[in-house]
Structure formats: structure tokens, C-alpha cells
Amino acid sequence: MTMEATLLCKFLLLDLLVNFSIGNAKPYIEPQSIPSIRFLNWKEHESHCGGQHQSPINIESDTAIIANYPEFIFHKYDLIFPGRLENNGHTVELKIEEQGMGEELPFITGGGLTDRYNFVQLHFHWGQHLFGSEHRIDGEQYPAELHIVHYNSKYGSFNGALSHDDGLAVLGILIELQPRDNIAFRHLEQFDNIIDPSIANSDALRYSVPLSDLLPDQTDSFFRYNGSLTSGKCNEGVIWSIFDTPIAISERQLAKFRLLRDENGNELIENVRLTQLLHNRVVMYCPYSSPSSPLLPFSDTEFSPMEFPLN
Ligand SMILES: *[C@@H]1O[C@H](CO)[C@@H](O)[C@H](O)[C@H]1NC(C)=O
């Protein structure tokens, strides 16, 4: 049997088991379920996808260990750069267009990161109905998730950083729904020219959006763990920061993502990898602490009042 056929059979079996277990013996697969086969079976044909430090995970907040990381510093996140949207057949990605030599792109420091991490791209995960985030908090899945990907500047490039334990830092931002549009997404949702990537897969953004417009209101509290990329070769060495404050878009805006297609013309209605086992990892939680009251009830030896800005 071909790989495709093997995967399809496994999927059928899974589907049957699920249907039987809920008392519904209808032996039928919805045609649109087929594209998600690859998300179920990545580990069999991609090199790192069967590793022990994989993402996404379900974060169990009551077992997370409290940590006092200094706050993130988002450098050049408030500036506007020319952007380009790309439908890579798996997600829609925003990159900053190549700048002249010496132009500094956005980067992050702080947040417990020991190095400077440069922005590479951001992309989205979404699904059908309300189940589109990759990370879950206490089992709760959100309608979508934004990943802002950075590489450790000391390795010179994204590719150079890929093989290192501290190579990448990804900010994970959960997306919920609100009745009104998110203005930042009105500029981003320019998907009409890249719906079918076999015709055209990239388009320059007409209105650039500063990255800060995509951050949640509260970036001081977040979960931290060591994981992997959730697509491609699932490379490990990703320092994840999952903010516990979501951002929000409208149902109309979420629906735009589901119009995108892959190279074979299949609808990209779901690009969510299943949650992975934690194995021997720990999840840290950095709670919000008001900068105006830096006297925390912790006697952590790593805590230093110098880490808190005086403003
Ligand atoms: C991630 O891995 C690094 C290197 O092994 C380690 O120092 C760090 O404590 C880990 N972070 C978490 C949150 O477990």
C-alpha cells in the first residue's frame, strides 16, 4: 500500500472507533476531513516529529511552576515595515520584505530569554468551528492561534539557529472571538490574491501593521516551556512563551482564513497539530506583577529588584 493509502486506512479505523464509541456506526468520512490526515501522522515521515520535546501541548496551569521572569522588551514592534503575505499551503505567513543593508527588523529581549531573538515571520493556526488553537490551557482550545517566530541572533539566521537548543523563540497568542472586527486584522486579511497558491502564493501587504498591534494587552504573564515547531520537520529547540491573555477577532475575520487552499486545491479549513505528550518537561508560569509594587511575596534567590524598570 502507498503511504497515502496506509494513512487513509488508519484514519478510517480511527473514525470508525470514534463513531462506534459514541454510538454512531455511520461508516462515512466527511470529504473535508481528509486534509487533516497529515496532522495526525506527521511523526511517521518527518524527522523530528516523534521527539520528546514536541509542540503543541495542553498546558495544565495548576502544575506549572511559578517563575519571576523580567518583562519582555519588544524592540521595533511599534514600527511599520513593508510586509508580504504568503500562502505556503499550510498556513498564511507574514514576513517583512527584505530591507536595505543595516535595516534592523523587530526583535525581542527579556522575558527570561538570555539572548536577543530576531523576528522572522508570523503565521496562524485555525480550524473549523471554534477549535483552531494548537495550544490549550487546561484543556480549553481557542478558535485560532498566532505564532510570532524569532531566531537567536547569535546564530546569524533562522536556518543557522534551527539545530540549537536555544535557537528559536516563538510567542504563542491565543485568539478568541468578539462581535466587532480587530482593526489590525482588517489590514492583514488581504487573502484574495493568495487563496489558491498554485496560481499565486504571495502578495505585498497594502497596509502594514506594527507587530505591537497583534500583541495581547497583557504580555507580562505567560507560560514558558521548551518545545518544537508544529509543522514542517517539527524541529525542537523552540523556547515557547504562551500568553495567558488572548487577542480577539470577529467571526467574519476568522472565516477568511478558512477560504485559503493548499497546492492541491484542498480547503485549508484546519491546520492544527494535535497536542503532544509532555514527557519529562516542565511548564513554567510567569504571573503578572504590577511594576509599581515590586515587593513580591517570593524569596526566590534569582529575583532581583534591579530587573524591574522604575517607571
Ligand atoms: C529549557 O531548556 C534549557 C536548556 O536545557 C533549560 O536551561 C531551561 O530551564 C528549560 N526551560 C524550561 C522552561 O524548562
UniProtKB/TrEMBL annotation:
Broadest EC class assigned to this enzyme: lyase
Known role: Reversible hydration of carbon dioxide.
Q: Which cofactor does it need?
A: Zn(2+)
* Record bears the keyword Cell inner membrane: no
* SMART domains named in the record: Carb_anhydrase (SM01057)
All copies of domain Alpha-carbonic anhydrase, residue ranges: 26-287
- GO MF: carbonate dehydratase activity; zinc ion binding
For the keyword Disulfide bond, the answer is no
Q: Which family does it belong to?
A: Belongs to the alpha-carbonic anhydrase family.
Which SUPFAM superfamilies does this chain map to? Carbonic anhydrase (SSF51069)
Give the species this sequence originates from. Daphnia pulex (Water flea)
Where would one find the signal peptide in this protein?
1-25
Which EC number(s) are documented for this chain?
A: 4.2.1.1
Q: Under what name is this protein listed? A: Carbonic anhydrase
Which key words tag this protein in UniProt?
Lyase, Metal-binding, Signal, Zinc
Among Pfam families, the record links this protein to:
Carb_anhydrase (PF00194)
The record's catalysed reaction(s) read: hydrogencarbonate + H(+) = CO2 + H2O
Q: Name one GO cellular component term.
A: plasma membrane
